[in-house]
Please model this.
Amino acid sequence: MPVTISWQQVAIRLLCAVIAGAIIGINRDEKGRPAGMRTNILVCLAACIAMIQANLLMPTAGKASDSFIVLDLMRLPLGILSGIGFIGAGAILRKGEMIIGVTTAASLWIVTVLGLCFGGGQILLGTAGLVLSILTLWTFKWFERRIPHRQRGTLSLTIDERVVDEHEILSRLKAGMVEIHSWGLSSAPETKSRSIQAEVRWNSPFEHSMPPKVIEDFLHTPGILHLDWRV
Model:
C-alpha cells in the first residue's frame, strides 16, 4: 500500500469495490436472499472507503513511539471486519431444523475483504478473490447439488393391526433406503390399533427435499389410519 495516493487511484479502487459488490450481490438476488446487490455494494464500498481512509492517513504524523497513545491506522479496517459479523448474523435464519442464510453471510464477509483489498490498492489480489468468489457461488453450486445430503424426519403412524403390522412398515422403510434412527410403539387393544413413532434418516441429492417415496406410498396403504410427517 503506497504512502501517498492520487484521486485517480482512489476512483479506481472505489469503482472496483462497486463492481465486486454488484457481481456478488446479483448472485444473492437470483437466489432471493435478503442481502442483495445494493447491500453487497454498500458493504464492499464501506470496507473500501475505510481502507482508503487508512491509506490517506498514513502520511499523518502520529504520536511519538514512546507515547501512551500511538496512531494505529490498521484498527480501522480491523474494526470493519469485526462489525460485519453483526450484519452477517442478521442474515442467518433458523426455521426448525433448517438453517438458511449462511452463504449470504459468507458473501457479505468476502465482499468486505474484497473491499479492503481494493481500498488498500491490491487490485490484482482483489480481482483474483472476486474471480474465485464468482466460481464458488455460481459454478460450485452445480457440484454441491450432486453431493448427497443427509435428511431427517419424524414419522407418526396409526395402523389397524388386523390389516397391517409394524414389521411390514419396518421392512418397507428399509426397502425404501430409509434408516431407522429410533422406533417406538404403543397399542390400543380396544380399537385394535397401534401407534408407531419413528425418527428416520435418508440421503437426498437436494439440500431440502420432499419426503422419501415410501412415505408417500403409506398414504395409499390399506390399514394405515393416520399419518403425520415432520422434518
